[in-house]
Amino acid sequence: MKDKKNNLPLYYQISREIIEKIQTGELVPGMRVPSENEIVKKYEVSNTTARKILNEIERLGWAVKIKGKGTFVQRNTVERSATRILSFTKNMIEAGYTPSTKILEMKEIASGYSALISGRQYTIKGPVLKIHRLRYANNIPMMMEVRYISKQFCPDIEKQDFSGSLYDNVYEKVYKLRLSEVVQELSAIMMDTGIKEFFDVTDAVPAFLIEGVTFCGTEMILEMEKSIYRGDKYKFTVRAT
Amino acid sequence: MKDKKNNLPLYYQISREIIEKIQTGELVPGMRVPSENEIVKKYEVSNTTARKILNEIERLGWAVKIKGKGTFVQRNTVERSATRILSFTKNMIEAGYTPSTKILEMKEIASGYSALISGRQYTIKGPVLKIHRLRYANNIPMMMEVRYISKQFCPDIEKQDFSGSLYDNVYEKVYKLRLSEVVQELSAIMMDTGIKEFFDVTDAVPAFLIEGVTFCGTEMILEMEKSIYRGDKYKFTVRAT
């Protein structure tokens, strides 16, 4: 059926094909996904495989089964306020999801970190802790972040708990720091092949690239970040006055 | 050379091919674009055509010729603050560009307009004026907007000047309205075929979709908008506190 992927189980291939239709907007929230019988007919698979396909789509949070009615595409975007200092964890809990985190890499950079954000060069003097994490909601990868944390403000940061919110659990609770301002630059990008693998998508998916700097006082840079937020999962709200 | 487009002049096809390399990031700001001689060799064209190609790329603002050095890719994104009420016109002038506007459509909708923005339904009672415009910087199409304007707050709005900023020239100067707040929802999308034509791009270009509502007092909706900002041209800056 799908030549290039024929080492993958059939149920997996077909469920991914249907999920891609949701990701690209061909199937929108509220629409019915193909029924067991429709899948049997269209893809020439057994009823068992068709059920497995629907279960897989539901398990991954893309659709929800309603007894006697069918399986429906779920509203699948999260609103994130960009004008409020807000941790991923808190944002997900407010949106009704269960957040989780996978640490991909952690290392100290002696020379520090520097980046151009919104036309200004920001620098954290070394040493900084670089931490690369993948953030999930109900086991769906939502956002990938690389953060560079000042060890001047957070000595022994590498010994802390990175499984949840750094804002709430580490900076505020452990180091008693007050986050005063976050400046972020949002770009609209296409995920490249490497990034797509992390998010378990194969199709062309747009994304937000966010580069930011967090202050814990005037001119005091606590951390800088470079994150990728899935465009099929996130919308950002801003208020201008 | 390019079969599908062979009714277009050669200089045009090749200039578009090089511009696409800039749009996709294969050529980044500061890099040299191929020289006249390199174009002659690579594309098997005359020196006259090669010069025409470089002139076209420069004319469209993608690169700048530096005497005796070559032609270099220009920094080609504009920063837009999303947390400040700011017209396109003012934003472009501050960024050093010459803004211009093309009106695509204008019509009255008797029944009004309604949209879901950041999880809340906003409604302008009819009649509203719908105005569809394409906004340019140095003749490059940057942003396409559809705005729905309350005729309750702006009677005879259709007789006003739509060639520039509505915020500055019309709402404030003509109707003496004070813009109190703008709420916007940003999505990362891929331009579809119809949109790509407006922006004169052929490749897959990411974009920001912005849906917004502008108030001229508490609960007083002056206008709503649905706009597309080119992802290869725009970055948004937000400040959270």
Polypeptide structure, described:
The structure is a homodimer of 241-residue chains. The first copy, chain A, is built from 6 helices and 12 strands. By secondary structure, chain A is of the alpha+beta class. In chain A, helix 1 crosses helix 3 (47-59) and helix 2 (36-43) crosses helix 3 (47-59). A 6-stranded antiparallel beta sheet of chain A has the order 4-7-8-11-10-9. Helix content of chain A is 23%, strand content 38%. The radius of gyration of chain A is 21 Å and the shape is elongated. At the A-B interface, strand 9, strand 10 and strand 12 of A face strand 9, strand 10 and strand 12 of B.
Short key terms for the protein model shown above:
homodimer, 241 residues, Arc Repressor Mutant, subunit A, Chorismate lyase, 6-stranded antiparallel beta sheet, two-stranded antiparallel sheet, elongated
